[in-house]
Amino acid sequence: MKHRVNPAKMEPTPETYYLKRRAFVRQVGLGTVVLATTGSVPGCDTSTSEADDATLLEPGIAKASVRAHFPAKRNSRFDLNHPLTDEVVAATHNNFYEFLPGRAGDLWRLTQGMVVDPWVIEITGKCRRPGKFDIDAMFRFDQEERTYRFRCVEAWAMDVPWTGFELSKLLAKVEPLSSAKFVRFVTVNRPQQMPGQRSTQGRYPWPYFEGLSMPEAMHPLTMLVTGVYGRPLPRQHGAPFRIIVPWKYGYKSPKSIAKIELVDHQPATFWQSLQPEEYPFSSNVDPKKPHPRWSQETERVLGTNEQRVTLLYNGYAEQVANLYA
Lesser CB count within 10 Å: N end or C end of the chain? Predict the structure, then answer.
C-alpha cells in the first residue's frame, strides 16, 4: 500500500485524500475483518464501513468557537520516524463497549446519536478546589498536536496525531492534596444513548472506570485529548474529551470522560474487576509480559499489516521507566 503521509515531514494526511474512502477500502482490503482472538478483548473492536467520509470523520463538537482551535500547532518533539496511520483506518478501528460490546461492526454508526455538547467534567476528591470544567474551559488551555504510538492489548498498533494538552495542567487547577496518590476516571453513563450499556446491564459494571497513579497522571506524556487528525474528536474516538497514556495498552486511555476523582488508594478498574489475571492495574506495554492468551512480542500495524517488534513501554521507556524503578 502506498502511504499518503510524507515520511520526511511526518504530517497527517491532507483531508482531501480522505474523501475517496471506497477506493481506499478496496485498496487495503478492509472489506472483511475478523478479530484475531476469541472472547472479550477491551480496546480492540475492529469496525468497517462503506460510509461517506464526511459522516465517518465528523467531529463531535460542531460549533465554530471550538473548531477555530484546529489544527493546533504541532509539537515536533513528539514526531515519529515513520508514517502516520491513515485517518480512515483509525476511524474504523475503535472500541467503545458502551455502544458495541465485544464484536466487530460499524461502531461509528452507533455513536452518531451521542450528545457531546454541552459537556462537563467534574473533578472531586483529594484537592483544595474541586470544580467543574465545561467545553469552553477545556479550550482555554493551549492546545498542541503530538504524534504518539498507540498500542492495543490485542497486539495491533497505530501512529496517531492527537490534539490536546497535558493532563497535569488540568489537575493543577484543582490543587491536589499530598494525600492524592491516584487518579480515578469515570466515563459518561447514558444507556438511553449507548446501546451497549443497555444490552449488558447486569453483566458489566457501568459506567466505565479507569485509574492511574498520581505520578503517571501528572507525567508530561499523559494528555487530555480534545482532537485527532487536526479536528475535534469524532464520537467513536471518545468525544468530546478522552485520556491518552501512550506507554500503556489502549484500554488505559478512557473515552468520553465525565468525572475525575483524586483518591488516596489504588482504585479498581473496569477490566481488572472483570478479568484481573488478564488486565492488571499497571498494564504497561511490555513485550516480555505475554497476555494469558497471546504473545506481546510483536504488533501488527493497522493499514499496512506490517509486523514490528513491540517496544518496552511502547517506545517511551526513556521518558517513563523511572516511574517504575
Answer: C
How much is the pLDDT for 46? Answer: 47
> Which residues are 262's β-sheet partners?
125, 183
Position 275, amino acid = Q
What is the CB neighbour count within 10 angstroms for residue 157?
A: 24
Residues 25-64: b if buried by 16+ CB within 10 A, e if exposed: beeeebeeeeeeeeeebbbbbbbbbebebeebbbbbbeee
Flag residues of the chain having pLDDT under 50: 1-39, 45-49
DSSP codes of every residue in 276-308: TTTS-SS-B--TTS-BTTB--SEEEETTT--EE
- Global confidence as pTM: 0.87
Radius of gyration of the CA atoms of the chain, in A: 18
pLDDT of residue 3: 33
Domains of the chain: 61-79+114-324 (3.90.420.10)
Q: Are 202 and 101 in contact (CB under 8 A)?
A: no
Identify the pLDDT of residue 320.
98
Assess contact for 217 and 168: CB atoms under 8 A: yes
Distance CA 79, CA 7 (A): 10
C-alpha distances out from residue 23 to 8, 27, 29, 199, Å: 25, 6, 10, 35
Residues 111-126 as b or e (16 or more Cβ within 10 Å = b): beebebeebebebebb
